[in-house]
Amino acid sequence: MGMAIIGKISVFVAEVLGVGSAIPTLFDKVSRNEIYGFRTRLALSCDEVWYPANRSVAKGLIVWGMVNLAAGFVTLTYQPLSTVDAYFLILPLLSVLIVVVVSMIWV
After folding, report:
1. Segments forming the whole domain that contains residue 94
2. Where on the phi/psi map is residue 22: left (φ > 0), alpha (ψ -120 to 50), or beta?
């Protein structure tokens, strides 16, 4: 198995874990804490901010995660790692950055 395939599979695993970790916050299953969730000073201050902020972030992470997974499936057909693949490896990082910035503005 080539390094390009291993890299693509690791991106898939990271995306699945990211989407999976967002699901509990989408359904308000994570109470305020210092480890898990969208932690800002304002969000940690009260439940009235914590739960809506985390639902918002979870929705964004799930949507972008699904987009990234779909894009990753497309790139699995390319060998070796091409410019297109490199963009799809960067896409997850950019999507998380977008979700965080939009959520910071929203909160």
Report:
1. 3-106
2. alpha
Domain count, the chain: 1
Q: Which amino acid is at 89?
A: L
Q: How far apart are CA 6 and CA 8, in angstroms?
A: 5
Distance CA 88, CA 17 (A): 17
Cα 70 to Cα 74: distance, rounded to the nearest angstrom: 7
* Model pLDDT for residues 36-52, shown as the tens digit of each residue: 988 889 999 999 999 99
Report how far residue 15's alpha carbon sits from residue 9's, in angstroms, rounded to the nearest whole number. 10
pTM score, whole prediction: 0.72
Q: Which of 10, 7, 11, 18 is nearest to 63 (CA)?
A: 18
